[in-house]
Structures are given as C-alpha cells and as structure tokens.
Amino acid sequence: METYDLIIRDGLVVLPTEVKRTNIAVKDGVIVEVAEHLVGDAAVEWRADGQYVFPGMIDVHVHFSEPGRAHWEGFETGSQMMVAGGCTTYFDMPLNGIPSTVHKEALLEKANIAAQKSSVDFGLWGGLVPGNIADLRELEKSGVVGFKAFLSASGNEEFERVDDLTLLNGMKTIASLGKVLALHAESEAVTSWLQAEKVRAGLVSAKDYAAARPVLAEVEAVERALTYAELTGCPLHFVHISSAAAVEKIELAKKRGLNVTVETCPHYLLFNDAAVVEKGTVAKCAPPLRSQSEQEKLIELFKAGKFDMISSDHSPCPYELKDPAVHSFFEAWGGISGGQFSLLAVIQLAIEYDIPFFKIAEMIAAAPAKRFGLSGVKGSIKVGMDADFAIVSLKEPFRVTEDRFFAKHKQTIYNGHTFPCTVVATMNRGRVVYHRGSFNKYEGKWMKNKRKEDQATIFK
Ligand SMILES: NC(=O)NC(NC(N)=O)C(=O)[O-]
Ligand SMILES: [Zn+2]
Ligand SMILES: [Zn+2]
User: Fold this and answer.
1) Does pTM surpass 0.90?
2) CATH 3.40.50.2020 correct for 56-374
3) Fold (CATH) for 3-53+385-407+418-439
4) Is 164 within any annotated ligand binding site?
5) What number does the ligand 1 atom closest to the CA of 313 have?
6) What is the domain partition of the chain in residue ranges?
7) CB 424 within 8 A of CB 46
C-alpha cells in the first residue's frame, strides 16, 4: 500500500475548471494524486468534510518593509498574517524597506532575511528607478519575479518615481530580458499639480485628497504606459487599478495584441469613499477609494473576469504615521493594511455575486503563477504541483478584530468587517503552516522566476 506524507480527505476541492468532492495525496511537498477513491496511508490524514480546498493564494503585491523598516511590518509578522489568510506565496515589493531592491546586493540581502523569517514561500520584485538600468540584468539573473516602477511619487524618498526617459529605456531593457514591468499608474503631473492647488488653498481633507487623485490621473498614466509598451514591446502589469475607464484602456490594448495584465485589490471592491469619511486615514491609499458608482462598475468588471488577478497591496505602517492629530490627510502614510483578508474578500464577492469558485481560484492563484513564471510549480490543484492549499469553511463567518489580525500593527480598514467564511488551515508544500489561529514555524522558499516563456506569451 502506498504511503504518503499527507492526505486531505473529502474536501470540496477547487480544481482548475470545477469544484469536486475528492481526495488529495501529497508526497515530498508535491501533489501526487487527486482521486475520488484513494487508498493508502499518510503521516497526516486531514479530514476536510464540508470544507473547501482552494489552491493557496499567490499574492503578487505586498510591502513588508524589511530590511530597514522592519518596525513597519517585517517578514516574520508579515508572512504569518498572510498564511492566516490562506496565502502560500507572496511577492514582496521593492520599496519601503531600506535599501530599495534596485540592485543585486539589496535583493540578496532581502532574500537572505526572508528565507530565515518567512513562514511561507515568497518571490521578490526588483525596482526600476532613475539610474539603475545597468542593474536590471543582474536582478533578472538573480531571480526577481519582475520589475516595478512608480509613475507618480511613491511616498517613499528611497524609491524615486521614473521619468519618461527612464521608463522608455527601462521598458526596452526589461523587454529584452523577457520580464514584466509592474506599474503604479497615476500621473505625476496631474496629481502633484492638483495637490499643490489644494494645499495652497488649505484644503486638506480626505475629500480633497481624493479629488487630487482623480480617475483621469490613472487613465492618463495607463495610456502613456501602454503607448510606451507598444513602442518597446515591454510586457506590462498594472497594479491596483481603481477605475473602469482604466480597465477599458487596458482591454483595448489587449485586443490589439499588447502583452498586458491588470490587477485590482479587494479594498476597491468592498469599500468606497464613504469608508474614508467613516474610518479616516486607515482607509487612505493611492489611488484613493472611489465613489460608490465607480465601485459598482469595478464589481461588474470583476464579475466579467476583466481583472486578471487580485492582490492585497498590503502597505502597513506604525499608527503614528497615520495619526490625524499629527498629520493632515495629505501627509498621512498611504496604504491599506489587510493582506490577511484578500482571499476571504474575494470569496465573499463570489458568494454575493454567484461567481464560480474555480474562477476565483484562477484570479488568486493560477493567473499570478502563469504571469510571473511559476506555472508548472504553483497555482492550481493538479498532480505535480506544489501542495499549497487554503482550507476554507463557509459555515463559520469571520469577524475581524485586533486579536485575529496578525499584522504587526492592528489598525485596518477591515476592523469590524464580517466575512461569510473562515480560513481554517493553510498548507505550504504539504506542511500545515497555519491552523485555527496557531502557526507552525516553517522556512519559506524563495521562488525565483526562471520561466521566461511565461512572460513572453500574450496572456489572454
Ligand atoms: N509606498 C507604498 O507602499 N505605496 C503603496 N501605497 C498605496 N497603495 O497607497 C502603493 O502600492 O502605492
Ligand atoms: Zn502603488
Ligand atoms: Zn503597493
């Protein structure tokens, strides 16, 4: 009789094109059988009756700020928070830590720290900033998942936004390396011009902040980036897109053959500008939370499958940096802290809008794996893939409270929110890293992006 390391029995397994009650067997961290009749023993027999087994989330967008600002989050608390939310691989952004991840030494230093502290597998982004084009090749060779640049000020003095020439040259180089460039797309000219006008007039409320970062600022930046991508052949990925008009531009570009993908974040789908009025700076982000009607349009696009993937953009900070007694809304740190809740949020939306779970699984796991060079290794529940699972119960709602949020700082827009589901357990390469509020120490592995052919193909 066959002996396995782990068998998950009788779960409702979210497979690539259907949900099916079946069993999964794991050996040496890899899925070796998915079968309705599975005979054999295992060191761990896990009963998942009535629970859903999702592929572990691959969250391509978090900021853990280590080294340099580990007091903002760090890999230890950051990764624990992610596994508590069913994430089995996250990609850390190249900014908010010191140094920024813009050369090989910074990348290797970060990788070394993460390998010691991360509870779960991870990938690392490299940055594109003015002056580092000569470093991109070494970053690529060392295994970055892709490159990231800001078209508007990042809010972080160690990570400069790209000027147009850097962007063109950077895109040309990144295209030649067969990699993807991720962009924070808001127009610097438009946002800084509008912000200066507001500040000069003493108008610094949450509403003024939103007015200084309008949908048009996003659309202008997206259009310019698409034009440059057409000129250079560079594959693009737009992070945290917050408007229907920007998605429309991206859709048109896809139709004319450009290699481009788009993500949005759960906060743009679950909340709108009313949350900023109600909750204050904890709900401040860039681009800002939009009007209710824009939110409704984004949900329609989400339902229609127009977002290739969903990421958290977990961007935490110590509370002092958002303290309204100290900082105006413009000055407060921008970023939503909520990496733990992305999978729960999309499952909530799937339930509310009747979206099949396998489509959700594609957005949170299969598509990010395919886009960033991990296909064939991670991203779906199939024989031969890493045994990365999020076990979810729809019978237990989850109310967010400070003691159930595992980020370093407990302030979050999600505080008090109740999800209709709970992450019961998370498994990374067959090991239980999280189970009902407790963690098992486990060394996450650096997932290097080696599969150039993934990025070279047009995505959809
Ligand atoms: N420096 C940041 O972490 N910025 C982040 N901040 C947000 N989204 O408000 C981001 O992704 O742009
Ligand atoms: Zn951003
Ligand atoms: Zn971000």
Assistant:
1) yes
2) no
3) Urease, subunit C; domain 1 (2.30.40)
4) no
5) 11
6) 3-53+385-407+418-439, 56-374
7) no
